[in-house]
Structures are given as C-alpha cells and as structure tokens.
Amino acid sequence: MSSIPKIVILGAGYGGILTAQRLQKALNYNEADVTLVNRHEYHYFTTHLHMPAAGTDSIEHTRVSISKLIDEFKIDLVKSSVQEIRTQQKKIILEDGTLSYDYLVIALGGEPETFGIPGLDKYALTIRSINSVRLIREHIEYQFAKYKNENNAQEHINFVVGGAGFSGIEFVAELADRIPGLCKEFDVDPSMVNIYNIEAAPTALPGFAPELVEYAMNLLTKKGVTFKMGVAIKECLPNGVILASGEEIKASTIVWTGGIRGNRLIEAAGFEAMRGRVKVDEYLRAPGQDNIFIIGDGSLMINPEGRPYPPTAQIAMQQGECCAHNLVAAIRNQQPKKFAFSNKGTVASLGKGQGIAVVGSKTYKGWTAAQLKKVVDMRYLFIIGGIPLVLKKGRFL
C-alpha cells in the first residue's frame, strides 16, 4: 500500500481550480497524489454567465477546458458527479466509482436558495451552469417566437427576475441590451416588452454606496427595467408570480437570482451547516476535521464586522490559494497559515459600456467602471491560464 498521501479536490470552480494549480506548483514529485473531481471537463466563469444567459455573448467565452489549466501528469482529473461524502470512511462515492482520501477539499459550489417560496424550484430558471444558461437563452428566444404565434399573448414578452443583487442586476442589464435585437428579429414592438426586477430588500446591490445604486437603477430604468423593491415573491406559478403585496405579474419567463446556499451534499455528509455552509476555522478546515477543507460557496467565514463574507469568486480564489498552502504544510508537518481576505474591490456590470465599481475608498461608474470589470476578468484569466488564455478569452473592446 502506498504511503503517499491522497488529496481529493471536489469541484473545479474558482476555489477548486486555484487549489489544484497551486498544489501542482508547490508539491514535489511523489509527495502526494492529487485528484480533481468535476462533473464537466471544463471550468466555467460563474461571474460571466449572465451574458450568454441573456444572449449577449457566446457560451464559449465563459468556459475553458480543465486539461488546459492543470498538468495531468501531476493532477488526476476525474470527470464524474459526487453522490456522497463519507467522512468516517474517508471515501467519496461517485456516480461511477469510489475514491479514498487522506485530505479532502470540498469546493462544490452553491445551489439556488429558494427560501421555501412555493413553485420557485419548479417554475423558475436559474443562472448556475453552462447548461442552465443555454436553457435560459433558448427559452427567451422561444417566447418571442411564440408571442406572434399565440395572438400576441403578453405573458410571453413579460420577464420577471427575482433578486436585485449582483446576478440579478447584471442579468437584467444584459437582457435589456438584448431586447431591441430580439424585437427586430421577431417583429415585436419594443414598447410591449416588460422586464420586472423584484427584490424583497428595500434596495438593490447590497454593499454599494447609495449613489452608485441610484446610478445603476436610473440607468436600467431608462433601459426599460421596472423595479419592485421591498416586496417579496410570495409564490411562483407556471405563468407568473404572486407578490407579497397581492399583485400578480403574468410572465412565461421567471429567472431566480435571489440567493445562494451551499451544496446539499455537505449537509448530507453530517457537517453542521447553515443553508449548506459550514463555519470553517481560520485555516479553512471543517470543525473537528483537520484533514477536510471547505472553500467557496460551501464555507462560512465571519468578517471583522461580525458578518459573513459574501460567497464571491474573489474570496473563493483566495481561499483556494490558502487551502493549497495549508495542504502542503500539513503534508510536511509545517505550520498552516491563517486565511485573511484581501478585498481587491467590487465591480458590477450594467450592460455594454456601463458599470459601477468600488476600489479601496474610490468609486467609479459608467465607462470607467466597465473597463475595470474587463481588467478584473483579464486578471483572473491571467492567473489561471497566463497570457495565452487572456488573448483567447479576454474582452478588449
């Protein structure tokens, strides 16, 4: 039996791929066996999915083959879906086999949080994967095609987006940009199309200064978005939604962006979790499990103000780097390092050539913020794939 420790990484999202890449650089030959498990052969950029979902960009711009990001002589890539995590046995049950581990990294990403709203899981679409994005784009186009073939039924060109956080705002911005082209293609009067953005909280885009939120909402209102703030979706129906106020909005397209929870496999494995998120220690380890690290959407960390860090790509990437360092430290019997989040800034896109951003104490809006968004995107591409990936996937105009 081999004495080489086995490291298994579940998920090749932002946290998982950075963990794998840092491990392959830091580990010596035969120092550990590293296996990366992912259900797809590609890594996709979650922060870009709103664009192909609305149809304003190609799906191919949002993904890259994992084999181009890792050295398969150092990292064993297993394409499979995780069915169960058995911590007592140190085993991972896959759909087509079993893996054993000495060290485990859970980076499975999140799932839509429906907050128990009736009908939401059945009738609403979500922006969570390449396949879900493909479905949303085709569904939207299909509704425009049906509108003219079903006596101009209004519900086909009414669009409801639940949630006005990052995903919701960025998606309605892209959708608003796409509508004129769809109207021209399908001979639909643009004035007949309605985009509703519904948010239970009193304001959109939490974390941004009020003046930036106001700028974003004014811009999107001019693009045709109708905001309904401070009112929750009470029920989701096959042909619309009922709001807590009693108002009913008829719509054939409901896209839910109102919340993310951790992967349910984490709860099923017996970890103590809140909405699928485990409160990890300062070294990113699960409570009482020095050999199990949880990063990304499945982890819960408290910031200095006493509130949970939001599950963003930025924090997942930094966790991935720290996690890899601590895995190497564990194997070499060295001291691990504490995770410390370094906020590089926050940028939200508002459609073509528009955005809002906060970098340090400075705020930006409009074209400047849109360029910062491109810089952020290209920085990530450079981190995981160097200049070749930047040239292939980057957006320069």
TrEMBL record:
Alphabetized SUPFAM superfamilies for the sequence: FAD/NAD(P)-binding domain (SSF51905)
Coiled-coil ranges per UniProt: none
UniProt cross-references to Gene3D superfamilies, sorted A to Z: 3.50.50.100
EC number(s) reported in the record: 1.6.99.-
Residue ranges of domain FAD/NAD(P)-binding in the record: 6-320
Cofactor(s) the protein requires to work: FAD
Enzymatic class: oxidoreductase
Database matches in Pfam families: Pyr_redox_2 (PF07992)
Alphabetical list of InterPro entries matching this protein: FAD/NAD-bd_sf, FAD/NAD-binding_dom, NADH-Q_oxidoreductase
Keyword Flavoprotein among record annotations: yes
Keyword Glycosyltransferase in annotation: no
A GO term for molecular function: oxidoreductase activity
Keywords: FAD, Flavoprotein, Oxidoreductase
Annotated family: Belongs to the NADH dehydrogenase family.
The protein's name in its UniProt record: NADH dehydrogenase-like protein
Lineage: Bacteria, Bacillati, Bacillota, Bacilli, Bacillales
